[in-house]
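User: Quick sanity check before I run a bigger batch. Here is a single chain. Can you write out its predicted 3D structure?
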Amino acid sequence: CAAYSDIYSASEKTNFGGQASYTQPVPLTYITQSSGWALNSEYDPDTPDGYELIFGPTGGANNAPGYMGFSFLDTYDVDSCAELCNTRGADPVGGVCKFFNIWEAVVSGIPTTYTCSMYFTPTDASSAVNYGQGDL
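Assistant: Done. Predicted structure follows.
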């Protein structure tokens, strides 16, 4: 088996986030505005309908059991993330979405992505241990 490729200089090697592949000052990539929301039995007008704020904002995204998947958002929009959780199909093992974690990825000081991660098991701040990849 043989693999062939063009040869690139270090300055030409970039990833989708726009950082060069050679060493940069750290931290370039980190997570901000991470907060977790869980289903609530009562209506709370200050939060998305049927949810309550469990933790946050904090500097880490969830790494918790019950993960169902994620969706990218155009903006940091808690209501949109709640709607995605409400309309997500049930997990065959854990059932419906009961918790979501919305967070913003920051690359070189610029908000790059807004992510809505969904779970069938609520959790707490102790699972918010994903602080990003550092230098991509």
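Residues 78-87 form the longest helix (10 residues).

User: Great, the batch can go ahead then.
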